[in-house]
Specification:
Nucleotidyltransferase, domain 5; 2 domains; 10-stranded mixed beta sheet; 12 strands; globular
Length: 258
């Protein structure tokens, strides 16, 4: 009998940052209780990253930008300290009835206190408020979906003005830093709003981590909607819109896609 291979990959947890100007040394302190670090130098572009090694280069599992003075390796405190509102957005596209149908799956993530015998414990709670269905998006469906999700979350008063928003996404990793710095437009001429930071998470691995888990939830919500439209349990959208960005739009509630 062949020996079963151990396919579990060793994950690397890193904090990466850029010094503000040239320095001869970097000083930092470590909190022995939390494991969080604090740089004594002025730093730019600070983020935590989880990856694993592979022959063609590291596989990035998550990358969380952090502006708090205390920088965490752990995604849970990193999210809680750096963002007031967190959501995951993933867009899936399928050709149905001759049309390119894109569904933007949205998951809202909240840190809640749950009473237990010995006091309260913090947990992450998440839900799907709605999904967006578009016909024939003219630009990149993923990038378009990020800005569309922000717009509709604001329209529905699910986010307050000027709060720190973290949006978990799983594409365009090479450009996320430029999007977060507002040095490159996200979609067409449109830049990321100044109070929004993109958080990268791979949706196909490491479901035990909150960022990967909720990204997978957004992907699942989008897929369920597409399946419902494809099967006919949700009627196909025949209402055409005349604009420069897409040919059709519907807001799909979670119940209507089952």
């Amino acid at each position: 009998m062949a020996k079963k291979r151990d396919t579990k990959k060793t994950r690397n947890e890193q904090i990466l940052a850029t010094t503000k100007g040239e320095v001869s040394e970097i000083a930092l302190t470590v909190d022995p209780q939390t494991g969080e670090i604090r740089f004594e130098n002025d730093m730019l572009n600070v983020y935590s990253e989880v990856n694993y090694d592979r022959p063609k280069g590291p596989k990035i599992l998550s990358r969380i930008p952090q502006s708090s003075p205390d920088v965490s390796f752990d995604s849970s405190p990193a999210l809680a300290k750096n963002f007031d509102f967190i959501c995951a957005v993933d867009t899936n596209t399928r050709r149905i009835q001759g049309k390119k149908v894109s569904v933007v799956g949205i998951v809202i993530v909240q840190h809640v206190l749950i009473p237990e015998k010995e006091g309260f414990t913090r947990y992450w709670q998440y839900h799907v408020p709605f999904c967006l269905e578009y016909l024939e998006i003219k630009s990149s469906p993923e990038n378009f979906g990020w800005l569309a999700a922000l717009e509709h979350l604001k329209i529905k008063n699910l986010v307050e003005p000027d709060i720190r928003i973290g949006m978990i996404v799983d594409s365009d990793l090479g450009n996320i830093d430029a999007y977060n710095k507002r040095t490159k437009p996200v979609d067409g001429p449109d830049y990321l709003p100044g109070n929004v930071q993109l958080i990268y998470a791979s949706g196909d691995t490491n479901k035990s981590d909150i960022v990967n888990k909720v990204l997978s939830g957004a992907d699942s919500a989008a897929s369920q909607c597409l399946n419902a439209i494809d099967s006919g349990s949700v009627p196909f959208n025949t209402k055409q819109l005349d604009n420069n960005w897409f040919e059709g739009l519907r807001i799909i509630s979670p119940n209507s896609a089952h």
